[in-house]
Design goal:
Number of strands: 32
Radius of gyration: 27 Å
Number of helices: 18
Shape: globular
Structural class: alpha/beta
Largest sheet: 9 strands, antiparallel
Amino acid sequence: MSRLRTLTAGVVLSVVAASLVTASAASAAAITTAADGLDGTCASLRVYNGSSSVGYVVRSGSGYGFTSSASAATAFRLEATQLGRYELFGTDGKPAYQSVVGFILAGDSYGDRADFTVAKAGDRYRFTATATGEVMGSFLFSLGAAGSTSTVALATATGCYTPPDIDPGVSGTAAPGVDSSGRLVGTIDAHAHITAAAAFGGQMHCGEAWAPGGVQQALAGCDTHKSLNVGALFEAIVGGTDAVNSPEDGWPTFGDWPQHNSLLHEQSYYRSIERSWRAGQRVLNALLVANRAICELFPYRDTSCDEMDEIRVQARYLYSMQDYIDAQSGGAGKGWFRIATTPAQVRSIAAQGKLAVTIGVENSEIFGCREINGAAQCTTAQIDAGLDELQSLGVSGLYPVHKFDNAFGGTRFDAGLSGAFVNLGNLLSTGHWWTATSCTGPADNEQPLANDDLVKLLSLGVVGVPAGTVLPVYPTGKICNTRGLTDLGRYLIQKMMDRGMIIHVDHMSVKTVQAVLDLAAAAHYPGVTSVHSWADPAVIDRVLSLGGFVASYANAVPEFLSEWRTNRAGPHGNAITGYGFGTDVNGLGDQANPRPNAATSPLLYPFTAPNGTTVNRQVWGTRTFDVNTDGAAQYGLFADWTTDLIQQAGADGPLLRQQLMSGAESYVRMWEAAIAW
């Protein structure tokens, strides 16, 4: 029997079988929705060659054939992978993919060839394999690559496969995002790294905030992070996890991660962000994060470690994330996740009841402005061009100094084993270790290498130092970085003020931050902020005195409450009308751990969120999350954490609730004042 006769016989037999198991299309209605609004559609596919019908698509062997019977057509679920792009699931859950030999076959999982770009063609559609450009149609009597005249008519069907997803676990009607006076009503996460999956070369972080193939692709485990592999060793250094027992069972069991200290695994999948938004969050400040030295220490990567390249990659990731959520929500502009580049846009987005996503930048070598043994590696012209580029990406604020000393100033020190790791990075970035002197009053940390942390780090064998390097010795007790604000740093701060950009003062050394705040005070500039507990109370009070915005690191509940009360008790504490939290999610920092007394004083489920919605435990696959036992293991649990925080505040609860729900308004007012300066 010839190949053509074999294929034809297979199609005839499959039509008979399919008629017994597929949904009836007898009363099907034509689908003419816009091409970017087809997500979740259950449809039969009828292929046309020009004006002539080839037939309805039906499952046939390992692929698909055609039948003239509408009632025998296979029902396909269209699942958006991006705006105007879809994965096509048959009733058995297998996705159609464009094979290398021309046929469209049934696959096992999402991949580039299981992605089809869809465009309107009159009252029909043109399906094109996104990876290859081949148009879906008739190929050797089967479904496959065809000519440009091939189109597909869609009609409603039933019995479609439903792919796995994550429910936010929030119900009920939320209070409005703005009040009758136009003031924002909702919380703000002023410091989050939801694009970290695209940072550090693209492989140091395991998991994605979104992926074309949905949750199964986004939250799969990574071989590079399995027991004793380099990812597990890195995570043990930064998070204290178990490098020996790291099975990497992501979706659907999640026995290994996410945990509150699994810092190299995705903690902000978009359905979790959706949970926090539905429970009252109105602003999320997404900080694009980069670190060349740390990126180069990790042996696997698929993007450049140049920090500006990392920023560009993450900006594209963030805008694509917005598009993906649009695609999941009915089309362009219809999603709940909206990027805002001006305060007016934040207010408009909140008025629609959606989440406003602002963009910031946190990296150590911004614009390539390293210092090597004290010599700046950039010019004022590079600073001007860099600020132009950042603003073109929608960036509203940045950290002039992050983990390492740079051409703008000195850094505030980390401590412990992670401090040793960062100090090593400082050596690789600048050519020198941190330099410190004893100090009184505000300090940059206690002696950062107590207990021989650097020796312990080097003994792990993951990272090393250049030959001949002498380990540093520091004074005991409080120490301060000897480096302060440089001339280039003063130039950057002035240019940021001229542009109305938000100056993030966290991570600056004591000498650097005092000089920056002196400049802002002399200019009466309000656009300064400290948002994740990397500044001492004296700095916080100076920020408040300038009209700046303050938030605390969303760590353990008792610590957050203590810091909030301390800041309120300062000389300018009465300036706090709204308060925020900074999750630092995906930012190499522990998330909130379970409260020590949660067993005897738990948050009870379901609970009522500050905006009036009802919140149940969130389920990922087969794992159910509970803030009492998991802390803030993933972003959705900040809805739970916020409610628990207010409850644990006791008599201060009503005031804390009011200030948290005024946090978005307070931040935007600061931003508006900076632009109007």
